[in-house]
Design a protein that fits this description.
Elements lengths: L7 H6 L9 E7 L2 E6 L1 H21 L5 H32 L4 E7 L2 E6 L6 H32 L3 H22 L6 H14 L2 H28 L3 H31 L4 H4 L1 E2 L10 H9 L6 E6 L2 E7 H5 L11 H4 L1 E2 L5 E2 L5 H11 L3 E6 L2 E7 H18 L1
Parallel strand pairs: 2-3, 9-10
Antiparallel strand pairs: 1-2, 3-4, 5-11, 6-7, 7-8, 10-11
Bound molecules: zinc ion.
The site of zinc ion (ZN) has 7 residues, from α3.
Length: about 400
Amino acid sequence: MCIFSQNLHVEVTNFQTEVTMQSFRLGSIFGFEIRVDLSWFLIFFLILWTLTTGVFPGNYPGLTNATYIAMGVVGTLLFFVSLLAHELSHSLLARAKGIPVEGITLFIFGGVSRTRMEAETPGDEFQIAGIGPLTSLAIALLCGFLWWVGRNVGWAVAVNGVTAYLATINLMLAIFNILPGFPLDGGRVFRAIAWKITGNYKKATRIATIGGKLLGYAIIALGLLQLFGGFVINGLWLIFIGWFLASAAEASYQDLLIRSTLEGVPARELMTPYPETVTPNLSLQQLVDEYFMHRRYHGFPVAEGDRVVGIITLNRVKDIPREQWAYQTVRETMRPIEDGVSVRPEEKMSNVLQKMEESQLRRVLVTKNGSLQGIITAGDIARWLQRRRDIGEEMA
Ligand SMILES: [Zn+2]
């Protein structure tokens, strides 16, 4: 499953709390950074537990507990590898189409490829979305073939059990992902087709979003039926998945709306003009005591006289060991202005958003000829959108 869009919506709504996905780095493959969301550990143990105590003992009775545990661990790890292969196929094809991919985050239901932009043509989107389920299907066929060989050649029951499981789970992944529920892969394929027919990206997304919500509600209904039929765990799972899908569809659409609303708006219209600045010679201790502890801001522009030289954020300070705060200065810690943390007042918000994401600061400085004009944070964007919505409602 894959929702390879930005998390702007989430970012904008969480602007006060500076929440990022709780994930950590696992390594990198083909130049893509692989991260694992903390929610994945929950899933990992749930799958491990289900396989070890339910699926394998049920299907292959008479083996030792140690064998079931070994089958469970290998099965869960290879399931994880299958998910990764699915996401890698999206990422590799996206990169081949000229879409920059930062990396892959595996989370509760699968993964997301973190891309900086969306496909530019319906054809590209069709292929990038479609290759994921095809990859899962290919893995399912491969595992099915191995299972068939194992049965005929007489491999151990434990081995055949794992290949059978992997064939089944990957087939389920392929089928689930080809359902036309945006933002699942199938929903993206569906959107690409609607996009090709209507020639309108936004309209196509709207249509696909409705598909995603309907599918989400259908899965919830199925979950309720199961729940009342006595299959409590299955029912709860389906309700959870359906709810997740319906809200992901809505969030993706909101994300697109926000982006298209902001697209052509110049930076100066959203910025908070002339924000408070700090000087580069402050120690971090002074900065914390005199600024961060007394203001609600998470970052300050750093200015030397009339010239802005950088930006310092609370996150940056938190990365420095506390005992060094008395000696280390703001200048030594800040992100310098040359580091792509500033935009011109007339710069379009579409570029500004990209810069905010690339710099990972969630804020940019607005400068003109080296002097500070303003600052744009996720909070400024959220407030601007809210104001626009309020005005729109009053005028309607
Ligand atoms: Zn996918």
